[in-house]
Amino acid sequence: MTSDRGASPMPVAATRAAGARAADRAERLLGSDGRLVVHGPWGSGKSVVLSELARRAVGDGVPVLRVAAAPGDRDLAHAALATLFVVRPPGMAEAVVEDKRGALAAAIGGVGPGGAAGHPLAVRLALTDLFASLARDGSALLLIDDAQWLDVAGAEALGHSLRAAASERLRVVVAERGCRETPLAGRLCGDHAVRLPLEPLTVDDVADVLNSHALHTGWASRVHQYTGGNPALVRAMAIGQLRQRPDPRGRVAPSVPDTARAAAEIWLGTVGPGPRATLLTAALAHRPTPALLRRAGCADATERQLAEARNAGIVRIGPTGVVEFAAPALRDAAAHTMTRSDSAAAHRALAAAADDPVRAVRHRLLASDAFDRTLAESGESAARQAGSRGERTLAAELLLLSADRTPAGHRADRMRRLATAASHAAASGSFDLAVRVADAVRAAGAGRVEQVAALLAVIDAGGQAMGELDDIIARARERAGEDPALLAAVQLRVAVRTNLCDGLPGSARAAADRAVRMARNGGDLALEAAALSMRARMERITGHPGSTRTLATALALAVPAERVGIRNSPQYLAARHAVFDDRLGDAREALLRLLPLAERTGDAEDLQEVLRSLAEVDARSGACVQALEWGERALSQCAGAGLSPGPASYTAALVQSAGGSFAEAAAHAARGVRVSREERDLVFTSRNLFALGTVRLITGRLTQAAEALREVAALEAEQQVRDATALRWQPELIETLVGLGRPDEARALLARVRRAMGSAALSTGAGAALARAEATYRDRTGEPDTARALLDTSLVQFRALGLQVEEGRTLLHLARLERGRRRQAAAREAAQRAHALFARIHARPWAALLNAPAASAAGPLTEAEAALATIVAEGATNQEAANRLHLSVKTVEAVLSRVYRKLAVRSRTELGPALRRLDPSH
After folding, report:
1. Cα–Cα distance measured from residue 392 to residue 609, given in angstroms and rounded to the nearest whole number
2. Which has the higher per-residue pLDDT, 589 or 92?
3. Alpha carbons 563 and 922: distance in angstroms, whole number
4. 498 and 513 in contact (C-beta within 8 Å)?
5. Strand, helix or coil at 87?
């Protein structure tokens, strides 16, 4: 059911999880005074929430009345009341309901004063009688949908009857469109009714929608950003993708289908002609303010006009006074509805009104389709300014427009502008824009160099989804011919793709080596530095002894990082190797030098890479608050530029594990796994699985942890990874196997890892983590003294390296070991040291572990017993519960025996129901 009957050609539906969440909140709020107003813009899922509330109520044996207003009801007295219908739970007599409903129909059909339909007093009495009869034996639920369409007489009758009804007997939920409080809501529910604004869908919700349509969930961030999370727009995007492509997974980025544009136009149509005219001009402007719009001829850009659009949820006014569309889809739809002549006139007006000369030139270019050499030169100059301030997407658009306006007799100028546009499009991660530039290059009959450069720009803009671009790579290789520099550039992309998608770093090293030789033959120093960096990266992964020497050779070329591209530069790789080696101070210093370069050049992926590495450094070193900030910036950069979510999700999981929440960390990692698999990105599939497995281990979900970490092991073996410092999964899997009672497997893996690790790796945090994992194994096999010595060694090493979160985690292991040895004072001291450390570095999830979150069950259980009982009732084994609460298995068994005795249960299966009897929230 849509929230605007007859307005949308498709059903509006939030995901099941999102609808359930909103209904959960509604039920909690209803419990306070029995009156609730649910509101939100068009397409926000108001009717979905009401339907879910109705389903739940009927399932609980509560009768439901529903009024469904429609746009035409406003001018017909009591029209909406005529749609009132009752959903009876099983066992409720139909005759009583139908008699009362018939009386209401008769009252509505009567004649009131002045010949109006329905006598007001008779209608009110019939409504009051109907409500009272339904709630006579308990309670009833009244749902009023699309209240904005209620006629005055019907609204007054409902309001009068509801004021006479006891709120504890008749609960009322009113759904109306809009983002602000209205007098109507007060008339129906009282001036102090609780309000529930519906939130947009989250990125995960959008991913669920895409997945339910067998679409690529890697698009979730882009779709969420484009639609603002509006459920109707999200669904329209998904359905449109299915209609226009038989295999929608064959694209790097989703296109905008007509269904999405049509849905956005319906939303725009919820405001009057005056605000809509202003919105059309605002859609063409960059950061429009009311003053700018008035200068551009929108005399109606007043507070009152904009307030209507704000209440419709179409725009918001930012803190600096900028009119911001709630979703880019709305802006695009508004621009799409304009005729060419109206659009040209608006661009001319905006060119005169704009206070930014670069934007003014853009409007002038868009106002004219004619060849104009002077205008094209102005566009190229404006693009240089845009590029210098990091606005690479704008620069690419300006150059593409300038090339199109360049007269036919100036081919060299056109080719130069297209070539530079391709470079900017690649740097900004604008895949669709890069494709448009490549099409324009081909249409212009460009030479081999220009065509290869444009195709490489498309590949670079595709980011992690290189597995979808094999045809583009093949075309670039064919166009390169025998040119060594061009072939080197193509070969470098082949190396990246071979590692990323095929998981063959050895083959990728060979491809990078070929790129090095070709770049030397072609005399391209920057390309040689990039190829050497790629070779050094693959040598490090595979344990090749030449990695350090290769990187030094690349650094010796002294090519500035911005010429190579920061993420491909030897300077950035040196910083990454410092991260792997736990030389965190060196890594941070190098990355902070690269950060302003990345910000200035405006390369979206370069900036994301530097931010991600800074987040990892600070998470490891215990600067948890700063790590969260870097991680948030990386996520924002990913979403804003439409980059692949896999890398940013991995980073978010790391920083959330350090200073945020384990639940959030697991959610980010799970999203990263799903997206990376779809993009055939084996590297970040492994990394996100590692993050997910680690969180599951820490939170005591050992079976699931083993599943994720075993897959990491398989992927790393398949990819021939030999470097144990980059992704430290081995210690986590050893600890998991011990926890699952598989010490033989743990011992075998421990022996293999120790043999494979060189002295350099053992001196890093990877070696300290391995010692901690071995301590877990030694404790399990009855060697507590050896275990204690290993933990002491691990603590010293972590402290020396400045890995504070890992130091605290090791103290937790020490506390558990000493507790198992019944050395309570030593256990308490270790736990207190861990708590003080976690509090100082703001490692919130780790501090929460020590606080042992208690279950809410009261009654006969102590706080500790309730916490354990809740975990076991969720399905955890004794070993898993012990790991999660940092207890010994013997302690868990003893406490669990007391719980069984106190609750008079005999098994785990009886534990959950017993807890729910104590506390229904379980």
Report:
1. 17
2. 589
3. 59
4. no
5. strand
> Which tokens go with 47?
């009717």
Residues 6+ apart with CB under 8 A from 920: none
What local confidence, expressed as pLDDT, does residue 7 receive?
Answer: 39
Q: How far apart are CA 878 and CA 571, in angstroms?
A: 49
For residue 334, give the H/E element and its range.
helix 328-336
Average pLDDT, the chain: 86
Per residue, the 3-state secondary structure of 610-639, as one string, reads HHHHHHHHHHHHCCHHHHHHHHHHHHHHHH
Q: What is the pTM of this model?
A: 0.77
Three-class DSSP labels, 199-216 = CCCCHHHHHHHHHHCCCC
Length of the chain (residues): 922
Nearest residue to 425 (alpha-carbon basis) of 453, 464, 465, 389: 453
- As a whole number of angstroms, the distance between CA 535 and CA 544 comes to 10
Helix 604-621 / helix 411-428 crossing angle, nearest 10 deg: 20
Q: What is the reported pLDDT for 921?
A: 40
Q: What is the C-alpha separation between 821 and 752, in angstroms, rounded?
A: 29
- Whether the predicted pLDDT of 893 surpasses 90: no
> Kind and range of the H or E element at 40?
strand 35-40
Residue 595 has pLDDT above 80, yes or no: yes
pLDDT in tens, 501-554: 888 899 999 999 999 999 999 999 999 999 999 999 999 999 899 999 999 999
| Amino acid (one-letter) located at 750 | L
Strand bridging mode 35-40 / 85-87: unpaired
Look up tokens 């100028």; give the residue.
413
Q: What is the mean predicted confidence (pLDDT) over 310-333?
A: 92
Going by pLDDT thresholds of 50, 70 and 90, the confidence category of residue 824 is confident
217 closest CA partner among 639, 685, 608, 645: 645
From 258, 302, 62, 322, select the one nearest 169 (Cα to Cα): 62
Helix axes 645-659, 662-678, angle to 10 degrees: 160
* CA 9 and chain centroid, separation: 28
CA distances from 616 to 278, 635, 647, 768, 904 (A): 46, 13, 12, 18, 49
Burial of 340 from C-beta contacts in 10 A (0-12 / 13-18 / 19+): exposed
Give the torsion through C-alpha atoms of 288, 291, 292, 293, to 10 deg: 80
- Higher model confidence: residue 917 or residue 331? 331
**What number is the average pLDDT over the span 327-347?**
93
CB atoms within 10 A of CB 363: 23
Q: Which residues pair with 170 in a beta bridge?
A: 140
Whether pLDDT at 903 is above 60: yes
**pLDDT tens digits, one per residue of 159-177:** 888 887 777 788 899 999 9
Nearest to 618 by CA among 629, 609, 607: 629
What CA–CA distance (Å, rounded) separates 238 from 245? 11
**Could you tell me if 64 and 141 are in contact, meaning their C-beta atoms sit under 8 angstroms apart?**
yes
Q: Judge whether residue 136 has pLDDT over 80.
A: no
- Contact at 8 Å (CB) between 416 and 447? no
pLDDT digits (tens, 9 = 90+) for 845-887: 999 888 743 333 334 666 677 778 888 887 788 888 887 777 7
Q: Any idea which residue has 């924002």 for tokens? A: 636
632 in Cβ contact with 647 (< 8 Å):
no
Would you place residue 113 in the very low, low, confident or very high pLDDT band (cuts 50, 70, 90)?
very low
Q: Are 516 and 487 in contact (CB under 8 A)?
A: no
How far is the C-alpha of 444 from the C-alpha of 466, rounded, in Å? Answer: 26
3-class DSSP assignment, residue 321: coil
Residue 242's nearest CA partner among 228, 258, 230 is 258
Give 373-419 pLDDT, tens digit per residue: 999 999 999 999 999 998 999 999 999 999 999 999 999 999 999 99
Residue keyed to tokens 């990454």: 576
| Other Cβ atoms within 10 Å of 711 Cβ, number | 18
* Percent of the chain's residues with pLDDT above 70: 90
